[in-house]
Here is the input.
Amino acid sequence: MLQGKKIILGITGGIAAYKAAELTRELVRSGAVVKVIMTANAAEFITPLTMQTLSRNPVYTKMFEPLEQTGVEHISLAQEAELVVVAPATANLLGKVRAGIADDLLTTTIMATKAPVIFSPAMNSNMWDNPIVRDNVAGLRQRGYHFIEPCSGELACNTEGAGRLPPIAEIVEEIEKVFSRKDLVDQEILITAGPTREPFDPVRYITNHSSGKMGYALARMANRRGARVTLVSGPTNLPPPVGVNYFQVSTALEMREAVLAHFDRATVIIKAAAVADYRPGNYSRQKVKKDEGPIMLTLERNPDIIAELGNVKGSRLLIGFAMETDDLITNAREKLQKKNMDLIVANHLREEGAGFDGDTNVVTILYPDGESRSLPRMDKGLVADEILNIIRELLDKRRA
Ligand code: PMT
Here is the structure.
């Protein structure tokens, strides 16, 4: 989503300045065009050469350098920026901007830009707690500047407290959020993701290949678009998406309980999880010992969570997924109708780049009236965004 976005990364002089290197790498990896402005103090902590190498662009450190392009440099940087991010932002920088001081290239650019500005403060916890800093933060927020709260932990000055630069993934997510349209602010979206695990003894379980990527992408995108998101996830290797209300479960029964606990508040429910239809009926508290012959495993039906929701959904939108190996569309349409869904997203297990585990999916979205929309192979993030577009259209139609 950051492809081609012009971002100015401001770095000020704090120990966390070295983390700006990783931030730059992530932004460049996401396709952003990053230009770095460093204060003189920042250059004491990390070299402009490092930042130039990682950003693949010249690094700006002085107000008055020979002009690289036409126009006055500080104004041209401020004008071309689609976003200015300052990470780390020191107390000094915040104080200067609040007071309207523009005495170096970074503060001048911040003052001259019309682009959104995000500050990611990092400093000693006593400085962060200082009423002057709090007052500056409050004042800047009031003027529309965005802030990423520092997190707590061990600080470089050998103290514990709030003042650490948040993980880079969190900063990138906030940047993505600034660029996203906020068309789901009125929605409470409940999403399920990942597989369930159905144990038959304390050591072994039945599961499937779901990685959670599709459901997590939906949670991430819905959060970026302003929805309040609850994600109920089976066991995955993915970090919980930033800014999302997150609940980890293991079995289908636990997933049902967590979904029902959050169902009332939801306006939209998206069930991307691959829920096991069966669980072992004869769970053994001891590890089942191997024997010469085969063992018998009886399987009991798990509750069909989405069918249950379909009966009581009221005015909520209910969106399911279907994963099939044969007759994808016919089977998906049958599920859509039988379980009273408002949409079903069908993905084929055998199609290249679709379904389990990969970063892409190929889906056909089916409507109850017989209409359908097929999407080409796309990154799961983009598929999620398209599904949310369709959800937004359905919500608007209902409102009309
Ligand atoms: O997690 P990834 O690796 O990214 O893979 C994504 C995915 C392939 C898991 C996802 O895109 C997907 O298709 N999820 C649903 C897979 C599935 O279980 O399909 P189904 O046809 O068995 O179930 C239909 C619907 O009923 C699903 O919305 C499912 O969540 C729901 N269901 C199924 C069984 C059950 N007991 N309770 C349910 O709620």
About this structure: The chain has 14 helices and 22 strands. The pocket of PMT is lined by residues 194, 210-214, 252, 271-275, 277, 302, 304-306, 320-323, 335, 347, 355-357 (CB under 6 Å).
